[in-house]
Amino acid sequence: MLPVFFWLFAALMLGFAVAVVLNRNPVASALSLVVSFVFLSALFFMLDAYFIGIIEILVYAGAVMVLFLFVIMLLDLKAEERRKFNIGVLIGGIVVAAAFFAQIFAVVQELPFGGQTFPHLATSDAGLQDVQNVGHILFSSYNLPFQVIGVLLLVATIGVVVLSKRELK
Amino acid sequence: MELTLNDYLLVSGALFCIGFAGVLLRRNIIIIFMCLEMMLNAANLSLVAFSRFRVQLGLPNYSGQMLVFFIITVAAAEVAVGLAVIVALYRARQTTHVEDISSMKF
Q1: Cα separations (Å) of A60 from A17, A33, A66?
Q2: A48: in domain
Q3: Structural domain harbouring A134
Q4: Nearest Cα to B60, choosing from A129, A6, A4?
Q5: Which of B17, B31, B70 is closest, CB to CB, to A97?
Q6: Does A97 lie in the same domain as A59?
Q7: A134 CB near a chain B CB, below 8 Å?
């Protein structure tokens, strides 16, 4: 884990996250979000979570963002026309978010083990068998939640079909 | 200089706060939805960091990564349903601006 790369990826991820909030064009926001999530998955790779990193790219950059762009283009949203700017909302939002970050910062500084470095993994010659380990635990200890999540996806699919029908009563 | 757990937690907290600020500041409902995804992913980052931090028998604690897996799945389902709601809303009102949708406002 090279600290230089961590700070580079973290800075790029946060920069594109800010771009999501600041862009007035929804398509530009969605594309910034894709780039931000790709750098986030780079951080997952640096934490040796290879499976989660790949899933992040596949699900977010591959599926979720395509869905977002599809809806944005289906609705044919123009760049937001300038409305009267509510300065109170702007200041209030920034102050609340900054106060929240200050709170997180204070709590993280208080963590008794927060300043410790990450312990080393016992890797064999083949390296960390990440996907194998994740699959083993997913289908043994977390088998019931895994099946419940399947039901959830089915329910979501049915819900989307019902919502998308022409006549909404 | 080695990286510590604090570094990851602070980056995660910063990402969460950017998403939070986006939800509070933006008035386009699709952008608000994207910022919600950003906040979920900030939580994922801290979960993976804790998972890597708690090494057991030379392996990361995979319970954290399992939770991340379930969060990603639920977020994907949430995006599908949420965007369907937004499309239905747009059909009824021809707007995605939250200030134009105030019929439930007290």
Answers
A1: 14, 9, 8
A2: yes
A3: 128-169
A4: A129
A5: B17
A6: no
A7: yes
**Residue A72 shares a structural domain with residue A97:** no
Identify the H or E element spanning A64.
none
Q: What is the pLDDT of residues B51-93, one digit of tens each?
A: 888 888 778 888 888 999 999 999 999 999 999 988 888 888 8
Verify whether the Cβ–Cβ distance B3 to A108 is below 8 Å.
no
Q: Domain count of chain A?
A: 3
Residue pointed to by tokens 């010659």: A125
What does chain A come to in residues? 169
- The pLDDT tens digits for B31-53 are 999 999 999 999 999 999 998 88
Residue A53 CA to residue A44 CA, distance in Å, equals: 5
pTM of the model: 0.89
Cβ atoms of A20 and B42 closer than 8 Å: no
- Tokens 């960390």 correspond to A128
The first and second tokens of residue B2, run together, are 């080695």
> Is the distance from CB of A39 to CB of B41 less than 8 angstroms?
no
Tell me how far apart the alpha carbons of residues A67 and B58 are, in angstroms, rounded to a whole number. 39
One-letter amino acid at A106 equals A
Q: Which residues does chain B have within 8 Å of residue A47's beta carbon, measured at their own beta carbons? A: 8, 48-49, 51-52, 60
What are the Cα distances from residue B22, in Å, to A19, A156, B18, B26, B53? 10, 26, 6, 6, 30
Gap between the Cα atoms of B79 and A62, Å rounded: 13
ipTM of the complex as predicted: 0.89
